[in-house]
Amino acid sequence: MIEIRFHGRGGQGAVTAAEILAKSAFKDGKYCQAFPFFGPERKGAPVMAFTRIADDPIRRRYQVYNPDYVIVLDETILEAVDVLSGLKEKGKVLINSKNEIDFNKNIESYNIDATGIALDILGVPIVNTVMLGAFAGATNVVTADSIINTTKETFPGKIGEKNAKAVQVAYEKIKYR
Amino acid sequence: MTSIGATVKEPGSSKNYKTGSWRTFKPILDKEKCIDCENCILFCPEGCINKDYDIDYDYCKGCGICAEECPVKAIKMERE
Amino acid sequence: MIKVISANRALAEAVRLARPQVIPVYPITPQTSISEYLASFVADGDLKAEYIRVESEHSAISAAVGASGTGVRTFTATSSQGLALMHEILFAAAGLRNPIVMGNANRALSAPLSIWNDQQDSISQRDSGWMQFFAENAQEALDFVIQAYKISENKDVLLPSMICIDGFILTHTVEPVNIPDQEDVDNFLPTYQPKHAYLDPKDPMSLGTFTDPDYYMEARYDMEVAMERAKEVIRTVNKEFEEVFGRKYDLVENYRCEDAEIILVAMGSICGTIKAVIDDLREKGEKVGLLKVIAFRPFPQEDIYQAVKNAHRIAVLDKNISFSIGGVLYNEIKAKIDVDASSFILGLGGRDVSPEDIINIIKQTRNPTEPDVITWVGLKEEE
Predict the structure, then answer these.
(1) Does C317 score more than 60 pLDDT?
(2) Whole-prediction pTM value?
(3) If you write DSSP's letter for every residue of C44-100 in order, what string do you get?
């Protein structure tokens, strides 16, 4: 079983990202589960969301304490939250940042200016789909095609097309970096 | 057990929570262009602009309403 | 069709498939998306029902009683404080023998104010005359709603049903759910044809009038008889459901109990985590099992007894507390079954229950420090 933890702020789309990732894994033929942990339900408050992906049905229902992957939607959350908490030894971190972050540990980390890509393509600083494209580029957990298809289903019409493009751009940026 | 008052133990403690880190865009005021109309002060939902037009970046969330309401476009929103 | 959806969505899909004609509902976290999904089904024409936007939960259940009194299939949903506000009318609904089905997103009761999960809200309504079914996952949320109508509307039962789904842990978790075809559901659950008293302008009658001491006890006794009879009706409906949809249910679910020395007894979503832990421990040779109580009312004492009678000791896990006497499920089992049992209070107000918590519960049950002690799992020490 693969466990992924998302860190973001309310309104950035961490919960939707966790759900899109789960649905994409399902398209790839896997079992899946995604759920949020809400603090106070308001825009800007730190939010966590979780995705589990496995070859067998998933029955476990507790928060993800030892993630294989951590996806950070907002760099400034590092001041408030220990995003590396419980990360597995060979775990990877993907973070929305213009700069490479030195985590001072032997952790494989990827940074991507997702806010820049989102502003360019979507016109708003909502980075969830961009980060999923980057995640597909950084790992073999899920295919970019499934992320793109699920994104289009989640956001019908023009918004979906734009988000799908943002996924593609982020995927290529990380995959061929 | 110290459960009385639950999560919020001190009154007025929300000021300890600096919301400035939420910003994607930062408002920059050009005081040369400013005509002292007070629109931005009145419209700021966070009360982050004082009578001298100093913006309190500790709490400004970068919503951009001040820039939108400024009649002389003296406020620019710049990427953080 | 298999879709990746939340338990709230699964429950709403079940309601759509069951075709209720009246849905009075008031939104409350974490139930809200149920009322939203149903509103859009009705607005989009996918469900032909009267959707009544009421001003409170008290009104929601009152309107449901009125609608059900005219002999139509009725649905409502709520959570926590909303269920507490319904308290008065819950008893009326059961006493009037209205076969209403309600979804309850289990959430802690105030104070302190909490939006997160425990089961205090529905447990506190245990004597209202409603049947209560606790779902482990989103699929059960869907399946239980469809079966609940058939059970509630059975002429030998005619009592309302509450489908309990753990707040956030189920309501806001997406996972693959098999959504049945409308045709299969229509065959399994035909249109409700009321056989007893119901309001009809062509044949006027009064419902819900007062009763003097000559009759009240008999009315209550009839409810007791109906609740007992419901056990057999539930089993029959479970079998019919399995024949059509292939998923097997009962009043309880035995999970690796046969040769188990230690058996955990629990309700709702926590059973999934327990099953995973049991599988891990079984690989190490530990004989542990889970008895999942699905029907809390009617109370399946015989099923529980048969499952646990050969165990050395059982642990009963309660997401509720009846102050000064302990967990409600624990006390009910102790009252009806002569078995060595330990009581654990856990997960109140959304406190996460980890596999380590379950392992510690099993350890503690195997080697109890003192009999009849009530353990609060993960309680923080005094500062």
Answers:
(1) yes
(2) 0.94
(3) TTSS--EEEE-SSHHHHHHHHHHHHHTT--BEEEE-HHHHHHHHHHHHHHHHTT---
**Residue where the block lists tokens 């209070």:** C345
Residues of chain A contacting residue C28, judged by C-beta atoms under 8 Å apart: none
B16/C contact by beta carbon, under 8 A: no
Over residues C263-289, the mean pLDDT reads: 98
Alpha carbon distance C354, C361 (integer Å):
11
3-state secondary structure of C6: strand
B3: nearest CA in chain C?
C112
The complex's ipTM works out to 0.94
- Min Cα distance C244 → chain B (Å) is 49
Handedness of CA A28, A33, A37, A38 (dihedral sign): positive
Q: Is C23 helix (H, G, I), strand (E, B) or coil?
A: strand
Cβ(C368)–Cβ(C344) below 8 Å: no
Cα angle at C251 between C246 and C255, to 5 degrees? Answer: 75
**What's the burial of C224, exposed, middle or buried (CB within 10 Å: 0-12/13-18/19+)?**
exposed
Strands A92-96 and A2-9, sheet pairing:
unpaired
Whole-number Å distance between alpha carbons of A21 and C260: 38
CB A154 within 8 A of CB A143: no
The predicted structure's pLDDT at residue B29: 97
Among residues C192, C194, C241, the alpha carbon closest in space to that of C20 is found at C192
- Mean pLDDT over A116-124 rounds to 95
Peptide bond between residue C20 and the one before it cis (omega within 30 degrees of 0): no
Q: Are C254 and A42 in contact (CB under 8 A)?
A: no
